[in-house]
Amino acid sequence: MINTEALQRSYNLVREKWDPHFEWIVNETAPWMPLRQPLSQIALALVGTCGAYRRGVDCPFDAANYYGDPSFKEIPTDTPPAALDFAHTHYDHTHVSQDANVGFPLTRLHDIEAEGMIGRFVNPAISFSGYLPQTRQLMKDTAPAAAKRLLEAGAQAALLVPC
């Protein structure tokens, strides 16, 4: 089920360059819950797909893996942006190299928490590598484990920052 020419081109590119067996995964069961409180009262988690990891602390994502890396990293929200690096080879790193907040906005979320725009910035933040042509492990194991971790930390909503 491909809805646009751009998606069709992306689909074709993935099949041609990386995985000739790639198929779209259509998730018909993802729960949607509207917010029941204003954002100013919500505990908000950060989930990013730019491959952020803490340099010298976390093992980088396996960006060279033909099938991607379905793992996730827990990033403490007090991590300085300068301590982050990005292991993901399927996007231009120009801007995240200049300002890590472009791909993993820890500082910005602290700012909006301080301004009262969100109730609380949930610790930890979660980082994935967004390149994952085979998503079964992510959907079956990794994403539920990351969601469980965020729920345990008190998250009521999540901000997804894709790359």
Can you walk me through this structure?
- It is a single chain.
- The chain has 4 helices and 7 strands.
- It is an alpha/beta fold and 163 residues long.
- The strands form 2 sheets. Strands 1, 3, 5, 6 and 7 form a 5-stranded mixed sheet that branches. Strands 2-4 form a two-stranded antiparallel ribbon.
- It has one domain (35-161).
- The model has no long low-confidence stretch (mean pLDDT 90).
- It has helices spanning 5-17, 94-98, 106-114, 136-152, and strands at residues 43-48, 52-54, 72-75, 84-86, 120-121, 125-128, 157-161.
What are the salient characteristics of this protein?
single chain; 163 residues; 5-stranded mixed beta sheet; 7 strands; globular; alpha/beta; two-stranded antiparallel ribbon
